[in-house]
Amino acid sequence: MVILVEGLIAIVLFTMIVIPATIRNPLTALSDYPPQIVRRCVELGIVPEREKRFSAMDLIRKGVAVVVFIVLFALIIKKVNKANTFLEGFTISYIIWLIIAWYDALIVDCLWFCHSKKVRIPGTEDMKEYQDYGFHIRQSLIGSLIGLPACLAIGAIVSVI
User: Fold this and answer.
1) Mean per-residue pLDDT, 12-30
2) What is the pTM of this model?
3) Alpha-carbon distance 13 to 156, whole Å?
4) Contact 25, 41 (CB under 8 A)
């Protein structure tokens, strides 16, 4: 039950961070948009062409978020969940990670992003890729794998503190 409450809190925090920032300026989340939309933005001169999907700033932003996630969750899992072993820390953190990842894919991406006019970038409004559910599900599967090293680190921190 505690894990579900923690998952709900994480979902609320995730939503409070992602939704307002994306509505305020959809370009801040451009690295999370389908590649065809990114290409159109480049063609329209809205953003410069990149050789890589994520800019250095994207990687720094996401890297800082992961480090904060690791430390914060290790401390919470140790104190709130009374986890003491690597396996307890890893399992609890990965369950919460998956809750967030699938909430992001199914609710934020497939229900909100795919249908909200507020995330449309001018000049790309006509693109069918805004409703590419498969893209969001594939990204969530990748995100689920990316969570493994972070949760392994949480398990390691829990076991030593």
Assistant:
1) 92
2) 0.84
3) 25
4) no
> Could you give the CA distance from residue 160 to residue 123 in angstroms, rounded to a whole number?
52
Q: What is the 3-state secondary structure (H, E, C) of the chain?
A: CHHHHHHHHHHHHHHHHHHHHHHHCHHHHHHHCCHHHHHHHHHCCCCCCCCCCCCHHHHHHHHHHHHHHHHHHHHHHHHCCCCCCHHHHHHHHHHHHHHHHHHHHHHHHHHHHCCCHHHCCCCCCCCHHHHCHHHHHHHHHHHHHHHHHHHHHHHHHHHHC
Displacement of CA 156 from its chain's centroid (Å): 22
Q: Per residue in 55-92, pLDDT tens?
A: 778 788 878 888 888 998 899 999 999 999 999 999 99
Tell me which residue of 99, 141, 120 sits closest to 33, measured CA to CA: 120
Residues whose CB falls within 8 Å of the CB of residue 69, separated by 6 or more in sequence, listed in order: 150
Using only C-alpha atoms, the chain has a radius of gyration, in whole angstroms, of 17
CB 154 within 8 A of CB 97: no
- Tokens found for residue 100: 């967030």
pLDDT at 51: 59
CB-CB contact of 97 with 151 (8 Å): yes
Question: What's the token pair of residue 123?
Answer: 């000049």
